[in-house]
C-alpha cells in the first residue's frame, strides 16, 4: 500500500493549517459564507439538510487497519458513532460541528488521509476496482496508476476551477467493477504486444443526462498516460461550458463537439505537452508500483475450509455468496456486506469499523477495500481464517450473506441527509431488503443489482442498476421512477424507464411485482433477471407493473 | 403574473452546529419550528430575508419556506421542510433525539 511521502505529509498538514485559519476567520466574522464556501468545499465540507457533512476520500478504495481505526475514532469523537461509505469510495460523516472539522482533518492526516478535492469543480477522488491486486484474470493492478493520478491531480494548478466536477475511474480487469463507462474519464488497463497501456473512455456520466463513455483512444502506453490525461482535461477546461451548470460536464462537451474533434484537439494538446514531461512521472509510477507489491502470500492457506463448508450450511451459504476467487491458491476475497436487512446501505458503526480493522490486521495482510457498491472487502484472506472471520463478523452484525442479491442495494443518502435530494432513498432500500427477506425469495431470485438515487444527480447510479429507482418530488409528493435493464459492467447500458412513477408507499410492491414476474418468465434458475429482461424486453415487466387498473390509477396519481 | 403570496417561515442552518433554525417573532433563532414566526405578508418576509442575509455570522443559507398555522405553531406544507423539523428517517438523530 502507498505510504505518504514527506511531501504528501507536509502538503496535507499545511492544507489543514490553512483550513483551520479559514474556519477561525469564518467563525469570528472575518469571512462571509460566500467567501468561505469555496474553501470549505475544497476541503470536503458540505452543509446538508440537518448538519454539516465531511466527505473523506479513500483513494481507489484502499485502507489499512490503522486508517479504518482512525475513521472509527473520528466517528466517535466528532460524529454520532458511525460513517457512511459512498458510491465513490469515500466515507461521509453526517454530523460534524464546524469548529471540529480542522481537528478531524488533522486526525485524518495522522493516518495519511484527507478530504481534499472531494467536492468542488476539480478532479475528484480516483476510484478503482475494489478487487484490484487480488482477483483472478487481472491484467495489472490499477491502483499504482490511480495513485499517480491522485498525486498529479491534487492541487494541480491548472485544474482547480474546471467547468464542473471531474471523476476518473480505473480498472485493470475485463469485468470492469469500477463502472469506468460512467465516468468523465474511464481507464481500462490492457496489454497489447506485451506492453501495458490504457483504453481511454471519455464523456461517460449519469446524472441529468446519462451517457455511456466513448472510446477516445484504444491504447495509450503507460508512459504517455499522464500527459494524455492532462491533454484531455486541458481541452475540456477550455471547451467545457461555464454558462450552464447542467451542460458543463465533459459528457456534454463531447456530445456537442463530437468525439473526432475532441480527439484531434487532445492529440494536438498531447503533442505539445508530452515534451514537458521529463520522465519524472514514470520514475514516480515505478516507486509507487513498488509500494503496491502484493503481500507475501502464505502456502497452505486453505486449511480446513472445505471441511467447514461441507459441515456447516450457514458457513457454506456465507462463502457461496460473499467470497470471490482469489488469484493465489488457498486465498479468498471476502466481501463484507454493509447491507444487513433493514439497515442503512453503506453505514458502519465505529464498533464495526474496529472489528473490520482487527480482522484485516490479524488475518488478512492488513488490507481493506471499500467498494462503490458500499461494501467492505478483505481482499487477501487465507481461507483457513474464514471461519474465525465469519464468526467475528456474525457477532458484529456483519455476516449478512447477500452480496450481489436483491438486498445488496446501492442507495445514496437521499433526502434523509442530502440538501440536493428530491426524495428519500434509504427507507426505500430498507423496505425492499426487509420485504424480500420476509418472503425468503432473495436466493431464489439470484444475482440482481438494485440502485436507488434520491435525485436526478444519480449518486446511487440508478441508471446502471438492473432495476433503477429514482426518487423525485412530484407536486410536493415523493414519487419513484423505475428503470430496467441498466448495467454498469464492461458493456454498460443505461436502463429504460418503465412508465409513470410510484408513490412512496407503492414503490416496494411495484418492485415485488417486477420480480415475481421475472420468476414466472425466466427459463430457469440459471437465467438472471438481466438476461430475462434482455431476452423479453420491457413489455412483460410493464404489464406486471401497470396492468392492474388500481395500480395504474396509483401510478398516474 | 406572479404567484399569490402564501404564509412563510424564515429558516436557515446555524453557522456553528449546522442544524436547522427558524426565525421567531422576537427576531431570535429557534431550533423548533412551532416557535417560528409565521410571516403573513410578502413585504415583511422580504425584509426578514434581507435581515437574515446580514446575519451571516449566525446562520447559513437563509430562505423562506411555505408553512401553515397549526395548533402549536407553524407547520410545514412540504415533506422536505417536514423532514427538517425532525431529522433523518433511518436513525433517531437530529431534532427528534430531543423530542
From TrEMBL, chain A:
Alphabetical keyword list: 4Fe-4S, Heme, Iron, Iron-sulfur, Metal-binding, Oxidoreductase
Can you give the residue ranges of the Nitrite/sulphite reductase 4Fe-4S domain? 119-271, 410-545
Against InterPro entries, the record matches this protein to:
NIR_SIR_4Fe-4S (IPR051329), NiRdtase/SiRdtase_haem-b_fer (IPR005117), Nit/Sulf_reduc_fer-like_dom_sf (IPR036136), NO2/SO3_Rdtase_4Fe4S_dom (IPR006067), NO2/SO3_Rdtase_4Fe4S_sf (IPR045854)
Q: Which GO molecular-function terms appear in the entry?
A: 4 iron, 4 sulfur cluster binding; heme binding; metal ion binding; oxidoreductase activity
Provide the Nitrite/Sulfite reductase ferredoxin-like domain boundaries. Answer: 52-110, 346-395
PANTHER family assigned to the protein according to its UniProt record, in alphabetical order = BLR3264 PROTEIN, FERREDOXIN--NITRITE REDUCTASE, CHLOROPLASTIC
Protein name (database record): Sulfite reductase (NADPH) hemoprotein beta-component
What taxonomic classification does the UniProt entry list for its organism? Bacteria, Pseudomonadati, Pseudomonadota, Alphaproteobacteria, Rhodobacterales
TrEMBL record, chain B:
Q: Which domain of life is it from?
A: Bacteria
Which regions are flagged for Basic and acidic residues bias? Answer: 75-85
Matching entries from InterPro entries are given as:
DUF2849 (IPR021270)
Query: Which Pfam families does the UniProt entry name for this protein?
Result: DUF2849
Chain segments carrying region Disordered = 66-99
Record protein name field: Uncharacterized protein DUF2849
Amino acid at each position: 500500500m502507498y505510504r505518504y511521502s514527506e511531501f504528501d505529509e507536509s502538503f496535507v498538514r499545511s492544507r489543514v493549517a490553512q483550513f483551520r485559519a479559514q474556519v477561525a476567520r469564518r467563525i469570528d466574522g472575518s469571512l462571509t459564507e460566500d467567501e468561505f464556501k469555496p474553501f470549505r468545499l475544497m476541503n470536503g465540507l458540505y452543509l446538508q439538510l440537518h448538519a454539516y457533512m465531511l466527505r473523506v476520500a479513500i483513494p481507489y478504495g484502499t485502507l489499512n487497519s490503522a486508517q479504518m481505526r482512525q475513521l472509527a475514532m473520528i466517528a466517535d469523537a466528532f460524529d454520532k458513532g458511525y460513517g457512511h461509505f459512498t458510491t465513490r469510495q469515500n466515507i461521509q460523516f453526517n454530523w460534524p460541528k464546524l469548529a471540529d472539522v480542522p481537528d478531524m482533518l488533522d486526525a485524518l492526516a495522522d493516518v495519511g488521509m484527507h478530504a481534499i478535492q472531494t467536492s468542488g469543480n476539480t478532479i475528484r477522488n480516483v476510484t478503482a476496482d475494489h478487487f484490484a491486486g487480488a482477483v483472478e484474470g487481472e491484467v495489472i493492478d490499477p491502483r499504482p496508476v490511480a495513485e499517480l493520478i491522485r498525486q498529479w491531480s491534487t492541487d494541480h494548478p491548472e485544474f482547480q476551477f474546471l467547468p464542473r466536477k471531474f471523476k476518473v475511474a480505473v480498472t485493470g480487469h475485463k469485468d470492469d467493477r469500477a463502472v469506468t463507462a460512467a465516468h468523465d474519464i474511464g481507464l481500462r488497463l490492457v496489454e497489447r504486444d506485451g506492453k501495458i497501456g490504457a483504453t481511454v473512455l471519455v464523456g461517460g456520466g449519469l446524472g441529468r443526462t446519462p451517457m455511456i463513455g466513448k472510446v477516445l483512444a484504444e491504447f495509450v502506453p503507460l508512459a504517455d498516460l499522464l500527459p494524455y490525461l492532462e491533454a484531455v482535461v486541458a481541452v475540456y477546461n477550455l471547451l467545457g461550458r461555464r454558462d450552464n451548470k447542467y451542460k458543463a460536464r465533459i459528457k456534454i462537451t463531447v456530445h456537442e463537439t463530437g468525439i473526432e474533434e475532441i480527439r484531434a484537439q487532445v492529440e494536438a494538446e498531447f503533442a505539445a505537452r508530452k515534451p514537458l514531461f521529463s520522465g519524472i512521472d514514470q520514475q514516480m509510477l515505478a516507486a509507487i508500483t513498488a509500494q503496491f507489491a502484493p503481500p507475501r502470500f502464505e502456502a497452505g492457506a486453505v486449511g480446513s475450509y472445505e471441511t467447514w463448508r461441507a459441515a456447516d450450511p450457514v458457513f457454506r451459504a456465507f462463502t457461496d455468496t460473499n467470497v470471490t476467487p482469489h488469484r493465489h491458491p488457498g486465498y479468498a476475497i471476502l466481501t463484507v456486506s454493509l447491507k444487513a436487512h433493514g439497515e442503512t446501505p453503506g453505514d458502519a458503526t465505529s464498533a464495526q469499523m474496529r472489528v473490520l480493522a482487527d480482522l484485516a490486521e490479524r488475518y488478512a495482510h492488513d488490507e481493506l477495500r471499500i467498494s462503490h457498491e458500499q461494501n467492505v472487502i478483505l481482499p487477501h484472506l487465507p481461507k483457513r481464517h474464514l471461519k474465525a472471520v465469519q464468526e467475528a463478523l456474525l457477532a458484529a452484525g456483519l455476516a449478512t450473506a447477500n452480496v450481489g442479491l436483491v438486498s445488496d442495494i446501492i442507495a445514496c443518502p437521499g433526502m434523509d441527509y442530502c440538501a440536493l435530494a428530491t426524495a428519500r432513498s434509504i427507507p426505500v432500500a430498507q423496505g425492499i431488503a426487509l420485504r424480500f427477506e420476509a418472503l425468503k425469495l432473495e436466493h431464489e431470485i439470484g444475482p440482481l443489482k438494485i440502485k436507488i438515487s434520491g435525485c436526478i444527480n444519480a449518486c446511487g447510479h440508478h441508471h446502471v442498476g438492473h432495476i433503477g429507482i429514482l426518487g423525485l418530488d412530484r407536486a410536493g409528493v415523493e414519487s419513484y421512477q423505475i428503470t430496467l435493464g441498466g448495467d454498469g459492467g464492461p458493456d454498460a447500458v443505461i436502463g429504460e424507464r418503465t412508465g409513470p412513477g410510484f408513490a412512496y408507499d407503492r414503490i416496494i410492491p411495484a418492485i415485488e411485482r417486477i420480480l415475481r414476474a421475472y420468476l414466472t418468465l425466466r427459463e430457469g434458475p440459471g437465467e438472471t433477471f438481466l438476461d430475462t429482461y434482455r431476452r423479453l424486453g420491457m413489455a412483460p415487466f410493464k404489464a406486471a407493473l401497470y396492468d392492474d387498473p388500481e395500480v395504474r390509477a396509483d401510478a398516474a396519481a | 403574473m406572479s404567484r399569490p403570496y402564501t404564509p412563510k417561515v424564515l429558516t436557515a442552518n446555524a453557522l456553528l452546529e449546522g442544524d436547522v433554525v427558524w426565525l421567531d417573532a422576537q427576531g431570535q433563532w429557534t431550533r423548533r419550528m412551532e416557535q417560528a414566526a409565521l410571516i403573513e405578508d410578502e413585504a415583511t418576509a422580504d425584509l426578514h430575508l434581507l435581515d437574515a442575509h446580514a446575519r451571516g455570522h449566525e446562520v447559513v443559507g437563509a430562505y423562506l419556506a411555505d408553512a401553515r398555522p397549526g395548533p402549536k405553531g407553524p407547520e410545514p406544507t412540504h415533506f422536505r421542510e417536514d423532514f427538517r423539523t425532525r431529522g433523518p428517517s433511518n436513525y433517531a438523530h437530529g431534532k427528534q433525539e430531543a423530542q
